[in-house]
């Protein structure tokens, strides 16, 4: 049974006026980064809940289409020898087709490394309880008939790639991680002591290409964890942000307001990427001279951004060699700007404290491309509560009442709303708030 469905039957959210977004740029193959693993652990039975991200923002329809229609590989079925399959759902909330890529580092993956996903469609799959892997989005892909290469010899970018961003050696079903820059959802389902914790994050360490959200699907043993503590989003593309607000109900429900990044607007978020890290910066004016500062030039709406590490591959930017410690490797301008627009996302190698989510094992996951609303700011606002959860403690009645209180959440949010937006304030977002690493626990993600 094909579980790929659309969401036309679900009510749409009220749309804001947005600029149109189009996947129109070229991505060449770049360096790859892999992730590590930990020991196995058992989990409890899964109860899959309904997704809580609906609707889409308008995007242009003049995207590159495939020269050949390639059928998606069959859905992975739960292993009959595995009594606890973990749901992994991928949803395309974008206005254009994307080609999700899936990389498996440990455990049993979903049976495919990538597939085509139409606007508004979702795909339900399963992974094993010891799965470690990542999910990313590829754009503007054109494969040959069997999905083993580009539809033409030169590929979509003249270098043999089948996708303009996130390409994995021109394969529909990826065997390698996507080429940079790419936004990542990373999972380690067997983290911590004895593999009894799940670690997950949104990573911009390899750069950024499209917005991404992670939705937790509770298991029987984790239904008590409120959704505003688990459901993260990174929206760093112009045309996707709702109006500035400190809280909202995207990714959650009315009972549990989610804390948001609240300073950026669509004009400001269009310029967060440092000029020299744009994968394809706008062309020079007719006289061949950039005005100063460079940001006076209109940038494209779809503006993939390389990380400092993927751009220079230097030890200082990649936190390797003599810089392989938090004390020696400090945030770059890219990291600070990325943290300003996506407070809950990894911005560089030692950004664990305000980027890693840790919850008990159990439950499934939905990765949503082009989520609605705003980037979340969960780890800074709910750091103490998440540390308690990571330590195996349940939240008290008093705490549960507090995290439903919108006024309290807004008071705890270190970044307050301002009229006008169009600002970046990374200094406010690098404070040591929600430290998520439990003593002696490593997350197993690079």
UniProtKB/TrEMBL annotation:
It comes from the Eukaryota. PROSITE patterns: THAUMATIN_2 (PS51367). Keywords: Membrane, Transmembrane, Transmembrane helix. Gene3D superfamilies: Thaumatin. Pfam families: Thaumatin. The chain crosses the membrane at residues 423-445. The keyword Transmembrane applies. InterPro entries: Osmotin/thaumatin-like_sf, Thaumatin. Coiled coil: none annotated. This is Thaumatin family-domain-containing protein. It comes from Podospora australis.
